[in-house]
Amino acid sequence: MKAPAMSDTNPNQSREWNYHPDLPLNNPSIFQWPPRAGFLARWVINNWLTLSERVMMVILAVALWLFFYPSLEAAESFAFGWVLQVWLINLIMVIVVAGGLHWYFYMRQGQGETLKFDRRALAKGNRLWNFSDQVHDNMFWSLTSGVAQLTAFQVVTMWLMANGIAPTITPVDHPIWFVLSLILLPIWSAFHFYWVHRLLHVPFLYKRVHSLHHRNVNIGPWSGFSMHPAEHFLYLSSLCIHWIVPSDPILVFFHVIYLGPGAAMTHAGYEDLLIKDKRRLALGTFYHQLHHRYYECNYGNQEMPWDRWFGTFHDGSNEATERTRAFKKRMYSQ
Ligand SMILES: [Zn+2]
Ligand SMILES: [Zn+2]
Questions:
Q1: Most CB atoms closer than 10 Å: which of 45, 91, 170, 334?
Q2: 224 C-alpha vs ligand 1 centroid, how far in Å?
Q3: Contact 129, 123 (CB under 8 A)
Q4: Number of domains in the chain
Q5: Which ligand lies nearest the alpha carbon of 198?
Q6: What is the full DSSP assignment across 256-278?
Q7: What average pLDDT does the segment 198-209 reach?
Q8: How far does CA 232 lie from the centroid of its chain?
Q9: Among candidate residues 154, 192, 170, the one with its CA nearest the CA of residue 78
Q10: How far apart are CA 15 and CA 7, in angstroms?
């Protein structure tokens, strides 16, 4: 008789993971053929008609636009004051989101180990990290190069819009395009991220640039935006879409939040935030967690089809792990 595996006692636990979703991962991509109306409707409801991560980001973008970020008029010419204002707001935003999640999950232990993917604690006392501390190292890269370059892309975009070089619309004149843009921006960003990320996994760039992010095999909220400056540059170039596609400042700010503090949410190390034992907010995905554990798989995000189309999808099964290891070996033996 076969010895019972650990997973026989708890189907969402294994030797490798403290928690994993039901495996193999299913296909939540909206790019399915033939399209399934019910599935698409659920996707819209889950992402846009509930208080989801994306809806909260739009609310934050509007609030920042109304009360905190400088106006486009102020951005007509570069001046120290308004640029500093944008930088300071972005700095505070990243500290509040990444710091808040870190405090709740890893300091206050608000959810204990429930829905936490990796069993290990974040690293301390290891010389692999600056300051011998994973969290301090991650904070350093996020708050220096990360916030500075996020701000740089944002202020250049605002200046281009203020001067009529980048095309603009307003939600009042073009409500349908505005709403459609909100829905399409995460899809664009996922497409851009997939290709930038594949480029970063070319061994030459991986060793010199991307390995900095990948020291985080076990990830926490501060890991998300912790990157080498060259990676920040490539990753944030997603914002250049606003230089050619007509946008409103709210769309730019939404995109900024999505790329900056949003990265802290996707790297939380926990699948969901529980409130009174109910899953209230989707955070990290097992999909990207697998990328951090096995490297040469799941370069994109799970609702997009790219990994499936290009044969780099890891569904969490042992077979996929074997395939990924073989693929990695081939990559590095060339
Ligand atoms: Zn990552
Ligand atoms: Zn990677």
A1: 91
A2: 6
A3: yes
A4: 1
A5: 2
A6: HHHHTHHHHHHTSSBSEEEETTE
A7: 96
A8: 12
A9: 154
A10: 8
Cα 216 to middle of ligand 2, angstroms: 10
Distances (CA, A) of 22 to 7, 286, 315: 11, 10, 10
- Residue 318 belongs to some domain of the structure: yes
Q: Residue 4: inside a domain, yes or no?
A: no
Q: Which residue range(s) make up the domain with 232?
A: 13-23+30-333
Helix segments in 72-170, DSSP class H: 80-102, 134-141, 147-162
Q: Of the bound ligands, which one is closest to the alpha carbon of residue 284?
A: 1
Point out the ligand nearest to the CA of residue 201: 2
Burial (CB < 10 A; 0-12, 13-18, 19+), residue 185, is buried
Which ligand lies nearest the alpha carbon of 262? 1
For 255, the 3-state DSSP assignment is helix
- Which amino acid does the sequence have at 241? I
Q: Determine, yes or no, domain membership for 289.
A: yes
In a domain, 3, yes or no: no
Distance 1 CA to ligand 2 centre (A): 41
Output the CA 288–ligand 1 centroid distance in Å: 6
pLDDT digits (tens, 9 = 90+) for 247-267: 999 999 999 999 999 999 999
Write the CB contacts of 193 (distance below 8 Å, at least 6 apart in sequence): 235, 238, 300, 301
Q: What is the pLDDT of residues 97-128, one digit of tens each?
A: 999 999 999 999 999 999 999 999 999 988 89
**How far is the centre of ligand 1, averaged over its atoms, from the C-alpha of 226 (Å)?**
9
Q: What is the distance in A from the centroid of ligand 1 to the CA of 91?
A: 20
- Residue 24 Cα to ligand 2 midpoint, Å, equals 21
Prior bond of 34 cis (ω within 30°): yes
